[in-house]
Write a structure and sequence with these properties.
Blueprint lengths: L10 H4 L4 E5 L8 E5 L2 E8 L2 E6 L13 E3 L2 E3 L6 E2 L5 E3 L17 E7 L2 E5 L20 E10 L3 H8 L5 H4 L18 E3 L2 E8 L9 E8 L3 E7 L5 E12 L2 E10 L5 H23 L21 H11 L14
Antiparallel strand pairs: 1-10, 2-3, 3-4, 4-9, 5-6, 6-7, 7-8, 9-10, 11-17, 12-13, 13-14, 14-15, 15-16, 16-17
């Protein structure tokens, strides 16, 4: 099978992965419209859990996200058709009493789970792998905070690659995550373990993290990053960065941060403002990249041995999804 050239060519295979589509706190008493891999979906709390369907009533293709929830049923705003948690229509108001509901009156339902304060959806019946692990979230020693979801006019793979690109820290985030007096990227080894890329390096002190610390990364295919910032004194900041591929050039970026050390409310607010600032510094740069989709052909962009090691590994990693590739060396100096 030939090697894909651009990110969208992976979409059929990416339907078999779990993707975050919303924070769970955003799904309240009514249905919520989301989008994943170009599919318009609706998420709703029906009964004891969440349900996810294609956001179309089977009757006249109205968006069900315009409707409401009554009891344990999703009610279409247009003609009042009611659907249960399994997607089956349970009532059609316009039908005379006693008349059977058509067998085809059933919504397409997708797998949906709540994990780490996020709603995860898989568009296929046979996920390749489970939702990525984020053990710190359920550890009582850690406190979780949620950075507001960010909407980027960029592809999910471009956004993900940016998050593991340490070489841009001193330039785009000078005075926060690095200094232009020390622009070098440490040398480290990258290991592929199943559906993860793993690596670690020692980061110099910076204004955001004034003590030298280990950065430990687990990049989960396709678009989730688990990062631990570990200090010698035992303080740990564990971050889940997860990108939702809404469309080819539309991505929602979620950021969940767990810390095992105390910050005052003022310090938490300051850190939140800094995290948002970092994302806002990244966004216009990533949105400017062309092509907007990540090229999976490593010859399409120039790479440097060392500084671009993670980008090269990630592009190879993504190109493996559903295809056979030649993993020969291509990085240059």
């Amino acid at each position: 099978m030939s090697r894909p050239a651009l990110e969208h060519e992976l979409w059929p295979a990416l339907r078999r992965y779990w993707h975050p589509v919303a924070y769970t706190a955003a799904v309240g008493a009514g249905p919520v419209a989301v989008q994943l891999l170009g599919e318009r979906l609706v998420v709703a709390r029906l009964g004891t859990g969440l349900a996810c369907f294609r956001d179309l009533c089977v009757h006249r293709a109205t968006a069900l996200s315009l409707g409401r929830i009554e009891g344990h049923e999703l009610v279409c705003a247009y003609h009042g058709w009611r659907y249960g948690a399994d997607g089956g229509c349970v009532h059609i108001p316009a039908l005379p009493a006693g008349r059977a509901i058509p067998a085809g009156a059933r919504l397409q339902r997708f797998a949906c789970e709540e994990r780490y304060g996020l709603v995860w959806v898989c568009l296929a019946a046979d996920p390749v792998v489970a939702i990525p692990e984020y053990a710190e979230f359920s550890d009582p020693a850690y406190r979780a905070v949620f950075v507001p979801a960010q909407q980027w006019r960029a592809s999910a793979a471009r956004a993900t690659e940016n998050s593991v690109d340490a070489a841009h820290f001193p330039w785009l985030h000078e005075g926060i995550l690095g200094s232009r007096d020390h622009p070098e990227v440490p040398v480290f080894e990258i290991e592929q373990v199943g559906e993860e890329l793993r690596y670690r390096f020692t980061d110099l002190p910076n204004p955001m993290h004034p003590v030298a610390h280990e950065r430990v990364y687990r990049l989960h295919r396709p678009f989730s990053i688990h990062q631990r910032k570990e200090r010698a004194d035992g303080q740990v900041e564990a971050v889940l960065i997860a990108a939702c591929p809404r469309a080819a050039e539309e991505t929602t970026v979620f950021l969940v941060i767990c810390r095992n050390f105390h910050l005052t409310e003022a310090e938490l607010a300051e850190r939140m403002a800094t995290d948002i600032l970092i994302l806002e510094q990244d966004r216009p740069v990533v949105e400017s990249q062309r092509p907007a989709e990540l090229p999976l052909d490593l010859a399409a962009e120039l790479h440097l041995r060392g500084p671009d090691a993670v980008a090269v590994a990630y592009r190879r990693f993504m190109a493996e999804v559903g295809v056979d590739i030649d993993a020969g060396p291509v990085a240059v100096e």
